[in-house]
Q: What sequence folds into this?
């Protein structure tokens, strides 16, 4: 297994192609996900990121008593990572979140990753529990991603949470998330960047950004990071628009802006196929400019659908 930073160094300025996938809903066939990944393998992604989904709670009456039951709707991140590595011989990068985990549970999860030979992990706080209005860590868990980065870094130095003797060190390459349009909870970009720097100083080796539709936002963000002495690679995240509804839900969920010119083009479309094509063309233009700027990789949020990303990759890679 190879570290993401080694892939980026070896590429010598050539922009790499990478993707993020999400596990299927519980009870769905893994084969469907694999068949979406397969057509993208032609573009040789050196790594595939796999998201992690925290539990949600449902109310259920059991034996006449109402109970709050934790349900994970998209389990299987670890198993999918193992399957991807076995089937496609590429590095799988699991997302590791703070939400819903104690530090001890996280330690065990990281040991599982280590035993599987996984050497990269994207370290995240995760969002608040559904129905909550703010993120609340599990008692004994981490409140922010920088704390989880510190835990991974300590394991890389052979330090476990409670063992008195030094253990064999892990060797994780650590990625973290960043937001060219600011994380929605941060009061200012400056504050958000200070916390990003804290994650990098704690040991993050690379950054992956939230999706954006205006490259200037990414370029400005990278410039601000460099001014803040954040010098690790910053991989831009891209998502091709595919439906008219996304004009509303993407800004709502991800707190980003969709350029009016793109929104106008989408609104002028009379059917879904035309909207998809607009999304593909826009992402191709974004990709061309980013490649010209020698970004480390174009990282596509596939939502486990390959057709649009394939059409884009055919033009760019
Ligand atoms: P943090 O870096 O902890 O930041 C969260 C907020 O707190 C920010 O506003 C920051 O400015 C502030 N902050 C940071 N550190 C501190 C501190 N020490 N003290 C006070 N304030 C602080 N979510 C999932 O559940 N599963 C996934 O697989 C997943 N994958 C993602 C992949 C990418 C590339 C991105 C960009 C996001 C992903 N998310 C995922 C969503 C992510 O979990 C949310 O955006 C979450 O709200 C923030 O996570 P973070 O790691 O950026 O948090």
A:
């Amino acid at each position: 297994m190879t570290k993401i930073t080694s892939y980026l160094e070896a590429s010598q300025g050539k922009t790499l192609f990478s993707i993020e996938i999400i596990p299927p809903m519980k009870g769905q066939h893994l084969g469907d996900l694999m068949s979406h990944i397969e057509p993208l393998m032609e573009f040789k992604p050196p790594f595939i990121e796999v998201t992690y989904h925290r539990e949600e709670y449902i109310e259920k009456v059991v034996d006449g008593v109402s109970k709050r039951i934790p349900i994970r709707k998209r389990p299987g991140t670890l198993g999918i990572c193992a399957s991807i590595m076995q089937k496609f011989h590429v590095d799988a990068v699991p997302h590791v979140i703070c939400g819903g985990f104690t530090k001890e549970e996280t330690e065990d999860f990281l040991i599982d990753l280590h035993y599987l030979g996984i050497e990269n992990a994207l370290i995240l706080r995760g969002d608040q529990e559904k129905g909550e209005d703010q993120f609340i860590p599990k008692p004994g868990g981490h409140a922010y991603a920088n704390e989880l980065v510190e835990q991974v870094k300590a394991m890389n130095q052979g330090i476990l949470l409670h063992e008195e003797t030094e253990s064999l060190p892990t060797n994780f390459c650590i990625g973290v998330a960043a937001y060219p349009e600011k994380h929605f909870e941060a009061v200012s970009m400056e504050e958000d960047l200070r916390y990003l720097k804290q994650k990098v100083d704690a040991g993050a080796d690379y950054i992956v950004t939230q999706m954006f539709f205006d490259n200037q936002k990414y370029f400005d963000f990278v410039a601000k990071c460099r001014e803040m002495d954040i010098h690790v690679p910053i991989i831009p995240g891209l998502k091709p628009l595919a439906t008219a509804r996304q004009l509303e839900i993407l800004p709502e969920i991800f707190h980003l802006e969709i350029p009016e010119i793109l929104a106008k083009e989408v609104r002028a479309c009379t059917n879904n196929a035309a909207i998809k094509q607009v999304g593909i063309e826009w992402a191709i233009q974004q990709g061309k400019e980013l490649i010209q700027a020698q970004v480390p990789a174009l990282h596509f949020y596939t939502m486990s659908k390959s057709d649009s990303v394939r059409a884009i990759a055919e033009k760019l890679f």
The chain is about 40% helix and 20% strand.
